[in-house]
Structures are given as structure tokens and as C-alpha cells.
Design brief:
559 residues; alpha+beta; Glutaredoxin; five-stranded antiparallel β-sheet; globular
Length: 559
């Protein structure tokens, strides 16, 4: 049976994910050839494809999203069917999803009901009669059902957290905040939007310490949050207590996109459910002066697409349509996350939803090349207006930007094995976007060159089974090509960097390598590479650049 791994980009992840096994009736699933999960077309630069490719050595090379939780394990060789990947579920474009990030024995209920966990979060019934042996831990072992909450609802009494960071005590009770406004910020340490929002909210709310308390809440366990946050200096100054291991509270406040903000008034009633983009000084001043704020209500809707289904042609009436060749183009599809999935074994299948043209051109011209991968730092745009191809908007603002109808699109290609899918895709894109001229230029650019230290030998792998394990805090690779690791750095951990990493080691054979350092931290990564006979130096090199030039006004097909 052919295998298929589905990540769920960003968020995107903000993600963690699942390993799916399926078989297609018409187009055979390719296994773990390529997967992509895009958080958003506008989160800190382009979100780049996260690809699983078969390199010429025969192993699977995994490119994992920077905003995934890790660690990730990919086993090479004949036992690849045991591979596991942790990443996120799909998010609505514009923000990161933290759905399914926390592994547990949670029983999900389709009616937004909550099953209390065994650690981290508790809902204590304060009405327990005196002398009754009902402790929070005993109560949490029972199944309690509570409906989800919305604006105007009263927060249940007894909600507390006992897995906390950045707090003197070992317990946080929401009841203790009565008398002040309380802001609950659902976030993820693997989400760039969250990481940027929390320090900003912390600094902003310092002005209102007598009127407002802020509690960030994440589904990640305490040790995982502490590990990841070491990477971000901005969190060193964070004054907010962080509630961790709190996935079950999301049943009270269901959401898909993060940051997700719930504002509670001094009486414990929900005042607003909004996004971090509406947590502004203007809105807070209005809230505390008049009791009302201009907070837009955040409504999360998400349609999950099966990676085996065709976007356009799938239906229940014709089980086998026997499609040989198909190309389709769509506009923005509401409630569907930005995503890209490729399958190659037998027929080729490329499916893209709600992504900007820049990503489509990136895929069509990068093809499956691990060396000339056109990340954001190897794409040059000319003649486009601000926010035309990408945007730094988030949350509701990002959704409004996409709903304008001329920024994000969908694309699907089904082609037989005798056709080059990337050549077909390039031809399609010329028809769909005739206002964009695409060329590949060789330019002198500043790069980070991975080199072998002078006089140092780098022996080939000892021939053990191939594997690749990676997280934001390091990598372990056995019998694996070094170029696959360089590709992974560019596509995931350094995707927002203005400087691409290129491999100038001359090592073209599988190697064994272990690096215990934050992969997104240049200084620490370089020190770890130096211990292994390698180095990462800044220099000028001639590299290929993908150039997108606007040569005419854009006239959408359907507008």
C-alpha cells in the first residue's frame, strides 16, 4: 500500500500532526515524497514548502516546518513505513493552529464537550460539601462535561492551572483575578505569530496593571515550552505567568487560529473573543474608559481536506473517473487553510489551496532540487505593490486581505508519469498569471557557506540504517546526505532569513552527524558545526535567483 504523510504549515503550524496511510482509486499515493503545511501567506515572509524527497542515495530527506513541535524521526531504507512525523494540523491562513498539538488520552466530543485531563489543568467544583473527599486530582479522573463558552457567558468557577512557568507560585486560579479584567491568550511556542504577540501584549498592558491581568495559555507541556523559549531573547523579559499543558481548556474556548484572545470582565463574564491584532492601546483605552472596546469577534471555521482527495474532481457518484490529465485553478476558498501537497508515484498530483502566486512559482521552478531551492531569500520581486503578493497582516486582517479575491489562489494538477509535472505547472502559471514574467538569474549574493575545515577529514557513514531526527534544538542524521540537511535548514529553520545557506563542503556521500544546538541560532549552530570539522561562514557567491516581474496590471479570471 502506498504511504502518505500529511503535515498539517505553518501553523503554519502553528502542529502535533498525524501519519496517514491511504490508497487512491485513480492516482496512486506516492508515500512520503512531499508534504507541505502552510500557516499563512503572510506570516513573517513567505511560508516555504516543507518537502519529503527521495534523494539519489535512496533515503527520504525530510524538511520539517519550523513551527512544528518536534522532535521528528524519519527512518530511511526498507523500514521507512515505520517513519513518524510530529507537526501540526492545518490552520486557517493568517494565523497558526494549535489544534492537536498536545499528545494525551483526550476523548474528543463532537458537541464541544470537555473531558478533564490528568495534569496541568483542573476545574474544581467549589460547591463541594464540607468533609467530602473530592480533591482536584480525584475530580479530574472523572469525566465532566461542560459546554463551550461564548461572549456573555460566565466563566465557571474553580478553573486552575498547576503547570506554570514564569510564576512564583505553583498554582494559578482564574477566580483570583475577579475584580479585574482578565485576558486569556491562547498561543503556541512553535507559532511565530504567538511569539511576536506575547511580548507586545506584555509591554502594552504594563500601562493597565491596576485594571488588567494577562495569562497566556498553551497546550504544550512545561518542559517543552521552557526548551523552545530558550531560543527567543524577547521572552527573557516576559513578566506574564504562562499556563502550560492546558489543552483541555480549549474545549471551553474552541478555536483553530492562534493567538486566540478571550477577554473576561471583572465579574467573570466573557467580554470579547478576538485576535491579538485587536489588542491595541486604542481599544484598551476605550474599554477602561467606557466599558466597551472595538474588538472584532473572532470566529474560527476550518474545513479539513483529505490529502488523498482531488480538490476539484472528487465526488461520491463516480468512484473511478480514470482521469489521465487535469489542471484546475481556483480563487480563494473560505474556511480552508493554505496548503500544498504533492504525490508522485504513478500519476503526479499537485494540490494547492489558498496560497499566493509566489509559492506556486517557487514550487514550479524549484521542482525537487535540493540545491537550487528558491526560498524567500532567493526570490526577487519587481514592480509589485505593497501587499500585492504577500502581506504582514494577521488574524482577521489577513482573512480580509485574502477575501479581496486577488491575492490567494488554488491550483490542482493530475498528470501521467510520462509528463513532467513542473513543466506543466509552469505552462499553467503563465496562462493564469500572464502579468508576471518569470526568469532565473545568476547574481552575486551574500550567503552562509557550509564548508569543511581545512585539514579536517569527514568520513563517510559507517553504513548503519538511514535515519534523520530533527527538532529546533538539534539534528541527528545517520547514513544521510549532507545536502538534505542544508535543504532542511533553508526550507524550515532559516526560511525567514535574508541569507541562504549553501553547501560548499564537497561532501557528496552519506554521513553521520549529530548537532546539539538551536538550528536557527547562527552562533551556536556554527560552534557545533566547528566541533564536527565543519564551519558556516559569510561570503559572497554566485547563486541562482528566481525573479518575478510585474509586466501588466493583474486581471483575475473571475473578477
Amino acid at each position: 500500500m502506498n504511504k502518505l504523510l500529511l503535515t498539517c504549515f505553518l501553523a503554519l503550524l502553528c502542529l502535533v500532526g498525524r501519519y496517514l496511510v491511504a490508497q487512491s482509486k485513480v492516482v496512486r499515493s506516492p508515500g512520503a515524497e512531499l508534504l507541505h503545511r502552510s500557516d499563512s501567506p503572510n506570516r513573517e515572509g513567505p511560508i516555504l514548502p516543507d518537502i519529503f524527497l527521495k534523494e539519489t542515495y535512496g533515503a527520504e530527506i525530510s524538511s520539517l516546518p519550523i513551527n512544528s513541535s518536534g522532535p521528528w524521526t524519519v527512518d530511511g531504507g526498507p523500514k521507512y513505513e515505520t517513519a513518524s512525523l510530529r507537526s501540526s494540523a492545518p490552520a486557517t491562513a493568517g494565523t497558526r493552529s494549535d489544534d492537536n498539538l498536545h499528545r494525551s488520552s483526550e476523548i474528543r466530543n463532537p458537541k464541544s464537550e470537555i473531558v478533564l485531563p490528568t495534569s496541568g489543568f483542573s476545574l474544581v467544583d467549589n460547591s463541594t460539601s464540607q468533609g467530602q473527599e473530592e480533591t482536584p486530582s480525584a475530580q479530574m479522573r472523572e469525566r465532566s462535561i461542560i459546554d463551550s463558552l461564548t461572549i456573555g457567558d460566565q466563566i465557571p468557577s474553580g478553573i486552575e492551572f498547576n503547570s506554570i512557568l514564569n510564576h512564583e507560585g505553583n498554582l494559578i486560579r482564574l477566580d483570583d483575578y475577579r475584580g479585574k479584567y482578565l485576558m486569556l491568550v491562547f498561543w503556541s511556542p512553535t507559532c511565530s505569530g504567538s511569539i511576536g504577540a506575547l511580548p507586545r501584549i506584555d509591554q502594552l498592558t504594563q500601562k493597565y496593571t491596576d485594571q488588567l491581568e494577562v495569562v497566556p495559555i498553551t497546550v504544550f507541556p512545561e518542559e517543552r515550552v521552557a526548551e523552545v523559549l530558550k531560543i527567543y531573547p524577547s521572552f527573557q523579559k516576559l513578566s506574564l505567568p504562562i499556563a502550560t499543558d492546558a489543552s483541555y481548556l480549549r474545549a471551553l474556548f474552541p478555536h483553530f487560529r492562534i493567538p486566540h484572545v478571550v477577554l473576561v470582565d471583572p465579574e467573570g463574564k466573557i467580554k470579547a473573543i478576538t485576535g491579538a491584532e485587536d489588542v491595541t492601546e486604542k481599544n484598551l483605552d476605550m474599554l477602561f474608559s467606557s466599558g466597551t472596546g472595538n474588538f472584532r469577534t473572532k470566529v474560527d471555521r476550518k474545513i479539513l481536506l483529505n490529502p488523498n482527495e482531488k480538490l476539484i474532481s472528487e465526488n461520491t457518484h463516480l468512484e473511478n473517473k480514470n482521469i489521465w490529465l487535469q489542471s484546475a485553478f481556483t480563487g480563494y476558498i473560505p474556511d480552508v487553510g493554505g496548503s500544498l501537497i504533492q504525490n508522485y508515484e504513478g500519476f503526479s498530483h499537485i494540490r494547492i489551496t489558498n496560497m499566493t502566486p509566489i509559492y506556486m512559482f517557487q514550487l514550479a521552478y524549484s521542482e525537487r532540487d535540493l540545491v537550487d531551492y528558491y526560498g524567500v531569500n532567493r526570490i526577487e520581486t519587481r514592480g509589485f505593490e505593497k501587499d500585492e503578493l504577500t502581506s504582514d497582516k494577521s488574524g482577521a486582517d489577513a482573512l480580509a486581505w485574502m477575501e479581496e479575491g486577488n491575492h490567494v489562489f488554488g491550483y490542482e494538477l493530475i498528470a501521467p508519469p510520462s509528463y513532467d509535472p513542473y513543466q506543466l505547472m509552469r505552462e499553467d502559471l503563465r496562462r493564469y498569471f500572464p502579468h508576471i514574467e518569470v526568469t532565473v538569474e545568476t547574481q552575486s549574493r551574500k550567503v552562509l557557506a557550509l564548508i569543511r575545515q581545512e585539514g579536517r577529514d569527514f568520513p563517510p557513514s559507517a553504513g548503519k540504517p538511514r535515519s534523520y531526527q530533527s527538532s529546533p534544538m538539534g539534528v541527528r542524521m545517520t547514513n544521510y546526505p549532507l545536502q538534505g540537511f542544508v535543504y532542511h535548514l533553508n526550507a524550515a529553520f532559516w526560511r525567514a532569513s535574508p541569507t541562504p545557506i549553501i553547501n560548499l563542503t564537497g561532501i557528496d556521500y552519506p554521513v553521520d552527524l549529530q548537532l546539539d544546538a538551536p538550528l536557527a541560532n547562527y552562533e551556536k549552530l556554527r560552534l557545533e558545526l566547528q566541533k564536527n570539522g565543519l564551519d558556516l561562514i559569510e561570503r559572497e557567491e554566485e547563486i541562482k535567483i528566481l525573479v518575478l516581474k510585474k509586466i501588466a496590471p493583474f486581471k483575475p479570471l473571475a473578477l
